[in-house]
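Known limitations

Files may contain more than one protein. Parsers should not assume a single record per file. Below, a two-record file is shown to illustrate correct handling: read the sequence, read the token line, then continue until end of file.
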Amino acid sequence: MLANNIEMSSGITSVKELREKPEITLLDAKTGDFAGIFNFNDFRVVENPNFVDYLRSGWQVSLSVAIDFTASNGQASDPASLHSIG
């Protein structure tokens, strides 16, 4: 392929297939004919665990909640208040 004449090709694979054979056969997007082979020199699968994954793996979570009903702390809009934001 030349830089000024870019052709579109596509290929489909899976991680399992790439581990067995690190290449993808490319097909021309317009005709579906063989367009080449894309070889992977190296690839890595990076898993980003989410919160549920951590819980499923046995992690435990503790949650503590406190509500301050003390009236002497003042209004949050008052800069001298213990509840002042900012």
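...continuing to the second record:
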Amino acid sequence: MALFDEVGYWSEVKLEIVRKYAQAYSKILRASGLHHVYIDAFSGPGLHISKGSGGFIPGSPLNALNVQPPFEEYYFIDIEQRKVDALAEIVGDRSDVHVLQGDCNERLLKDVFPKVRYKDYRRGLCFLDPYGLSLSWDVIKAAGALETLDIFLNFPLADMNRNVLRRIPEDVDPQQRQRMNRFWGDESWRDAAYSRAHDLFGEYDEKASNEAIAGAFRKRLTDVAGFAHVPEPMPMRNSRKAVVYYLFSASHNKTAAKIAKDIFDKYRERGL
């Protein structure tokens, strides 16, 4: 497997959205005097290859490191040691940057989130861009409970549709259902994804639209994870313009939510 991922147009849009938000976020937090950190749970090696140009482009860690004014600290996590090593080499010897190897579901809860507590006057921006359904709901819920974190989250719709949200739910592999339960937090996704319908042959399960499933998860971010503000997510597409995932923003701050919404709105119809 190649060290550097090849990314398309919409992935570059995603990186640009998070970069712009990080810029606004850091400026506001620096002025407030609060210690603020940037967290990337699936950091990769720091660079991507653009499908459009064929050249290297900065990934989210390097974008964050270039934000001015800078964050106080940076936490970059990846499960692959070679990607961690590559990013650490690019970053160099910096006391404000922590490059961690391991499963982010463990490292975030054990090593990172405890360093961003409300009572310590700390705040953070956390980018959760998982490889499919590899993120645990426990991380999302913990982020909401802290009340110190703004998050950007890749809602991996393509993985869900390919492996879990089949036309006949009973045909889904139990291991795939378990992956979905872990990401969603329980089995309530079935109620969001299917409804009972009727035809001449009797009852059957009818799959909900992508928009409806994303809407149910948006509600879950507020009602269960406890985020106060979750703007309508940004649909991210492949080269055929089909939605492959949704980019969510969630925060406890009304101003932060407005900034995210404004950035989303600028990009929402781009390229359609």
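Parsers that stop after the first record will miss the second one. For reference, the second record is described as follows. The chain has ten helices and twelve strands.
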